[in-house]
Amino acid sequence: MDESKVAENSLAVKICNETVRVTSEEGPDYILRMANYINYIVDEFNEKKGKGVPQTLLLVYAALELCNSLFGERDNKMSAKERNYEKMFHMEVFNHKKTQDSLAAAEKRLDEAERRLNILTKELESITAAAENANGDKKGPAIDVEVK
């Protein structure tokens, strides 16, 4: 934004009893309309829920309400094809997450199988060593083969 326009497109407004300075390319009238709309949403919610709702909750509600309006308006402007693509994209993200979860579960099962294999290998080595010690005197004669 051009520095000379900043001063004329900046306005201090009260939103939820807090004064904030807002700058917009649209100018002060637009800024005032935005602030008034946010305050309207906050006041409406405060009336429904009763006085004393924490300010943070009021602002979260206002943000959700604005997102809902924005998404609704955007959805109205999107063609059916664009909405279908968006749904497909979100399904792909969901499926990717499921695949990652499945891979993580498979890795855990593989780690557990490797752990059990290591235990069985140690047991087999122990049994083999014990058998060799028990048969220590019963080894056959040494054979030496010489090829001419």
Task: Spell out the key features of this protein.
148 residues, mainly alpha, 2 domains, two-stranded antiparallel ribbon, 4 helices
Q: Sum up the overall morphology in one term.
A: elongated
Please bin the fraction of helical residues: over 70%
> Which strand-content bin applies to the residues?
5-15%
Low-confidence stretches are: none
Structural class: mainly alpha
Task: Describe the oligomeric state of these chains in a short phrase.
Answer: single chain
Q: State mean pLDDT (0 to 100 scale).
A: 83
Task: Write the element-wise H/E pattern from the N-terminal end onward.
Answer: HEEHHH
Give the N-terminus to C-terminus distance in angstroms: 98 Å
Structure summary, number of beta strands: 2
Instruction: Give a quick account of the main beta sheet: strands, pairing sense, barrel closure.
Output: 2 strands, antiparallel
Count of helices? 4
Number of domains: 2
